[in-house]
Amino acid sequence: xxxxxxxxxxxxxxxxxxxxxxxxxxxxxxxxxxxxxxxxxxxxxxxxxxxxxxxxxxxxxxxxxxxxxxxxxxxxxxxxxxxxxxxxxxxxxxxxxxxxxxxxxxxxxxxxxxxxxxxxxxxxxxxxxxxxxxxxxxxxxxxxxxxxxxxxxxxxxxxxxxxxxxxxxxxxxxxxxxxxxxxxxxxxxxxxxxxxxxxxxxxxxxxxxxxxxxxxxxxxxxxxxxxxxxxxxxxxxxxxxxxxxxxxxxxxxxxxxxxxxxxxxxxxxxxxxxxxxxxxxxxxxxxxxxxxxxxxxxxxxxxxxxxxxxxxxxxxxxxxxxxxxxxxxxxxxxxxxxxxxxxxxxxxxxxxxxxxxxxxxxxxxxxxxxxxxxxx
Length: 376
Fold this sequence. Notes:
Layout: H1 16-23, E1 40-46, H2 51-56, H3 62-66, E2 68-73, H4 80-89, H5 93-96, E3 102-105, E4 108-111, E5 116-117, H6 132-135, H7 141-147, E6 151-157, H8 164-169, E7 174-178, H9 181-192, E8 198-204, H10 206-214, H11 219-237, E9 244-248, E10 254-255, E11 258-261, H12 266-269, E12 272-275, E13 281-286, H13 289-300, E14 304-308, H14 309-314, E15 333-337, E16 341-344, H15 350-353, E17 357-358, H16 364-367, E18 368-375
Parallel strand pairs: 1-8, 1-9, 6-7, 6-8, 11-16
Antiparallel strand pairs: 2-18, 3-4, 4-5, 9-18, 10-17, 12-13, 13-15, 14-15
Helix pairs in contact: 10-11
Organism: Saccharothrix carnea
GO molecular function: hydrolase activity
Protein name: Putative AlkP superfamily pyrophosphatase or phosphodiesterase
């Protein structure tokens, strides 16, 4: 089984916004996905909506199943912080630099989703220590679009306003906070009527949350998928004439019950300075990489792909190029799970350790996400 390396530049999440902006007349943007169309478009990102999961549960999502579309790749790691960075910046991981759910940077291990210090019970806000605009200094695709005269609107949960992740990768748009399905639909419709050229980005998180807690494909997850389907249909019903809706996701998900606990495993801990990432993909920062690699390989066998930093970069896991300031954030070893493996941390990540569903790796289930569209 070979890793599914993301199709950066020819079919990945990082290509979505540039493809759409090419149709809105933004200079320098290329439509590699064939999405260029109406001058007013909404991108609805459903967290955790994997392509295979959608295909397996079409009966629960008749509207989404009826839309034209195909599968693209999420990017690596296939996790929310990295994927939202790819969407917002329009570039692969090695260029935007958010190399995982958590990673080492400047002496800190950053939880990129919460922009706090990584660890059990840690709520230390790092926005003043690891300034989001410095961690991700590249101009976002939204900033480029706004400079070109496109009205950029972000229809996101209210508590994401001013967050570290929002500042790092979504800056450039006008933030419009929402509380639930109702005002999300209303805000999108309002945004698409606000100007002649509009890019609206909307986000829904709950499908991913239920997949983590109950498992992808569980009864609770399927009910949430039905609600997501109605949400997408309502957004489509509210489109102004000629406007477009594009539905995508940030990653798929697998049920991972083959658990190895780093926090209680002396073999895995030996020689490891820091551990980042999450259960399905780990950044391993070491004192002696080859010795640690040998121990991890012996412990995990063929249940994971284990690559050195140089090997992962050479294989293109993080994109065709990795900027110099990004390289140290990647582990000395990168461990990507196969099958149902999860490398958990019962002490440092007690909540995440209880999850049924996980994502992050290079399997088809985690990498393939939908790109669906309809025109009002």
